Amino acid sequence: MDKLKIGSAGIFYEYTKGKSPCIAFIHGLGANCTAWQREFAHFQKKGYSALRFDLRGHGMSSKMTPKFNDFSRDLFALVRKNRLNKIILVGHSMGGMIALDYYKKHSKNVAAIILVDSSYRLSPETLKILAPIEFLVMQIIGYFANFRKKSRHMDFQRFRKKSDFRIIYELSSSLDAIPYSMDIVKDMGKTDFFRMLGRIKCPVLVISSENDEFFRISASRKMAGMIPEGHFKPIKGTHSSIIKRPREISGIIEEFIKHHL
Questions:
Q1: Are 203 and 220 in contact (CB under 8 A)?
Q2: DSSP structure string for 229-240
């Protein structure tokens, strides 16, 4: 991977040059770019330009407390560095909100947006409140994870057949654990792209997992209907579908690009 210095932050990224527009993969909170590894490889093989990167504070990028606005700024710096005229934004979870933030600032640079298990805001309508028992289980997972020797940066592809709780456990005991993640969530809570949805002028695909633990499929369908060129695609699975169902998601994205760009 390459490293781009942006102010005091070092952003690690991988870019493969191919046919345009470039597909930029954006991971979610607490993850890193390995979460998109198989989708990234799929489009590399298909000859597309492809970009993936570790958000600041995540993965191999500089460990610092970021603001939500920092993420889209870093992506724009990568776009300029690699002289990309048009990009297709593909964001998972928080990565989808980053994609919308990027479009708000640089709409002329965006050919299409693909949101996977994501939303335009964090609210009671789009974010499921974890049941007390689920919250307790995650607290227990985090407690025991503290006794493990910190492992290397997470490779999310190791957990394609593991439960979501196992992924949380492994993440909590790795160098990728983010102790300030709630600060980012609070910052995200101030962000709402609702008013922008009706003004988005590029094709948008909303992919939603039927059993997503965080974003309701009904809210995702409603969001797609608010966007002039919005399209909705439900799939089976949970919030970790990009890790566990990469072939299906790659195929859906590829078909969308063929028919709408």
A1: no
A2: TEEEEEESS-TT
Rounded CA separation 250/260 (Å) = 15
Q: What is the DSSP letter of 124?
A: T
pLDDT band at 187; cut points 50, 70, 90:
confident
Task: Indicate whether 131 pLDDT > 50.
Answer: no
155: left (phi over 0), alpha (psi -120 to 50) or beta: beta
Instruction: State the helix-helix crossing angle for 246-260 and 37-45, rounded to 10 degrees.
Output: 50
Phi, psi of 237 (to 5 degrees): 120, -170
Describe the crossing of helices 68-81 and 181-188 by its angle, rounded to 10 degrees. Answer: 90
CATH of 2-128+192-260, one of 3.40.50.1820, 3.30.750.24, 3.40.50.720, 3.30.70.1070: 3.40.50.1820
Contact 113, 100 (CB under 8 A): yes
Length of the chain: 261
Who contacts 196 (Cβ-Cβ below 8 Å, separation ≥6)?
Answer: 100, 103, 104, 120
Q: What is the average per-residue pLDDT within 207-222?
A: 92
Q: Rounded distance, CA 135 to CA 55, Å?
A: 26
Query: Would the pLDDT of 32 be above 50?
Result: yes
- Find out whether 106 and 41 touch, Cβ atoms under 8 Å: no
Structure tokens that stand for 71 in this block: 């993420």
DSSP assignment letter at 158: G
